[in-house]
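tool_call: predict_structure(chain=1)
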Amino acid sequence: MASEEAGPGGSVESVVGTAAGGSSRPRTKIVLGEVAARRAPGDRARVDLAEQTPVGEALVKGLMRAQLALALRLSLVVLTGLGALPLLFAVAPPVGAAKVLGVSLPWLLLGVASFPFLVGVGWAYVRWAEHNERDFTAVIRRPEQ
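tool_result:
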C-alpha cells in the first residue's frame, strides 16, 4: 500500500486489487477522517449546548429559570385579577348586587370579561417568552470575546 499526500486533512492511498470490472488496475482510496479532527472549533457556547457540558447545562437552566419566573409572575397576575373579584363582591355587597343590562355584575366580570383578560395574559406570556428565547439565542450566537 503506497500512501500519497492529498492536501490538508486527508490522504490518498493507492491500493492494488481487483476493480469491479475484473481488471487489476490500482484503485484509489481517499481518507477524510482527519478533516473532522482539524476543523476549527465553532462558537464555544454552541458546542457547550450540543455536547451538554456543564456550561451548556447552565445556559439551558438559565433559560428555563427565566421562563418559569415569567410564568409565575403572570400566574400571580391572573390569581390577583380574578381572585380579587370574589373578595370585592364579598366585602362590598352593593357591587355584587349591581346589574348591568339586566345581568348581575359578578356574572359579567367572571363569566364574560375574564376570557379577554386570560387571552391578554396568554398573549403577553407568549410575547415575553419569545423575548427570553431571543435573548438566549443572542447569547449563544454572540462571538466569544
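agent: DSSP finds five helices and five strands in the chain. Proceeding to next step.
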